[in-house]
């Protein structure tokens, strides 16, 4: 009787308590085990009665054990193991690459001015990368861009190479589309240069082309000025310096004022306060002729700018190599955009 009282009154706060209970009452060496041993010595006429009591005790103990186990488990779930007030583990989603973000922004700005987006091959022939763009054979201008050659051929297009600029898409577009043509052409380009913070063997450009009747140099300047204001803010200033490209005449380098970073610490701006963002000019008559367009009837402007450079100015990134190293710590910082 007293054992039965003990069993029913037992409470367990921890798993340890529960184990104590099991050892004490249920296991073979526990109190019940001992009583069953004693039962063997009891005279036959009392055995039936005593056995019945013992079985009841055993059932009570086992029932209690099951009950305590369940109680412990359910209280563990609600109080100790799970804290429902904790914020959930965030889902890590990817984000767009900074160069892609910049490319999208550039496209957005020019699309509003009526520019389409066009595309061309990265593996190109000499004709589209050089000859049609008015690079004379053996002209030093070809060496200005250290070309990766893939294959020497004598077929129609000449040598096969990795395009050194996106200007090849100007030719591809004008060959198949008559003016008016107004397009921007983003893409990857390749040059045989040693990799450093400021140079890479591949990078990205956006080419711009507008060919129609009466397109003037003033249109070129205002278009790029509008772009710079949209991209960097309305206080930006634009500067044009005379330059040379075989496929434009006249040609210019386009600089903008360095609004974001100044002084020696700023790798892209240096100390002058100006930073170059594009090469540009009026499409050379020979280029139009090479594409079957009459330069007496049509004129046009073209420009080419580096997407890395625009991105560097936008996000103050000092090292070009970061864009292609796939370091997650770098890439994650552009998460909120997009
Ligand atoms: N293709 C030139 C470069 O890579 C840039 C450019 C494009 C200049 C269009 C003028 C007109 O440097």
What is the spatial order of strands in the main beta sheet?
1-5-6-10-9-8-7
Tally of helical segments: 12
Mean pLDDT: 87
Oligomer: single chain
Structural category: alpha+beta
Could you estimate the helical fraction of the residues in percent? 25-40%
Explain what the structure shows:
The chain has helices at 2-9, 15-26, 31-39, 44-81, 98-112, 126-129, 141-144, 168-176, 217-232, 285-290, 307-315, 328-331; strands at 116-117, 123-125, 149-151, 160-162, 181-190, 202-212, 238-245, 248-257, 274-283, 299-306. The protein is of the alpha+beta class. A seven-stranded mixed sheet has the order 1-5-6-10-9-8-7, sandwiched between helices. Strand 3 and strand 4 (160-162) form a beta hairpin. Phenylalanine binds next to strand 9 and strand 10.
Summary tags:
40% helix; rod-shaped; 10 strands; seven-stranded mixed sheet; single chain; alpha+beta; 20% strand
């Amino acid at each position: 009787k007293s054992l039965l009282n003990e069993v029913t009154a037992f409470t367990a706060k921890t798993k340890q308590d529960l184990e104590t209970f099991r050892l004490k009452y249920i296991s073979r060496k526990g109190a019940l085990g001992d009583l069953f041993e004693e039962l063997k010595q009891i005279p036959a006429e009392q055995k039936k009665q005593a056995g019945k009591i013992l079985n009841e005790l055993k059932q009570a103990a086992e029932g209690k054990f099951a009950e305590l186990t369940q109680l412990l488990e359910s209280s563990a779930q609600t109080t100790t193991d799970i804290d429902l007030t904790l914020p959930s583990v965030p889902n890590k989603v990817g984000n767009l690459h900074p160069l892609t973000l910049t490319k999208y922004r550039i496209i957005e700005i020019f699309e509003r001015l009526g520019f389409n987006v066009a595309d061309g091959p990265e593996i190109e022939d000499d004709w589209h990368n050089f000859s049609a763009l008015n690079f004379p054979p053996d002209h030093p201008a070809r060496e200005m861009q250290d070309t990766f050659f893939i294959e020497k051929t004598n077929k129609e297009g000449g040598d096969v190479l990795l395009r050194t600029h996106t200007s090849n898409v100007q030719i591809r577009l004008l060959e198949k589309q008559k003016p008016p043509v107004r397009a921007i052409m983003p893409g990857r380009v390749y040059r045989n240069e040693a990799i450093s913070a400021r140079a890479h063997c591949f990078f990205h450009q956006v080419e711009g082309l507008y060919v129609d009747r009466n397109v003037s140099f003033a249109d070129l300047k205002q278009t790029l000025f509008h772009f710079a204001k949209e991209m960097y803010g309305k206080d930006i200033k634009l500067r044009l310096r005379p330059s040379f490209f075989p496929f434009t005449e006249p040609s210019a380098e386009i600089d903008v004022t360095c609004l974001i970073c100044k002084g020696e610490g700023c790798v892209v701006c240096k100390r002058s306060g100006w930073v170059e963002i594009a090469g540009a000019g009026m499409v050379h008559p020979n280029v139009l002729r090479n594409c079957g367009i009459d330069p007496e009837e049509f004129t046009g402007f073209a420009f080419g700018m580096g997407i890395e450079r625009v991105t560097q100015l936008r996000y103050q990134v000092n090292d070009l190599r970061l864009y292609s190293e796939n370091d997650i710590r770098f890439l994650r910082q552009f998460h909120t955009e997009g």
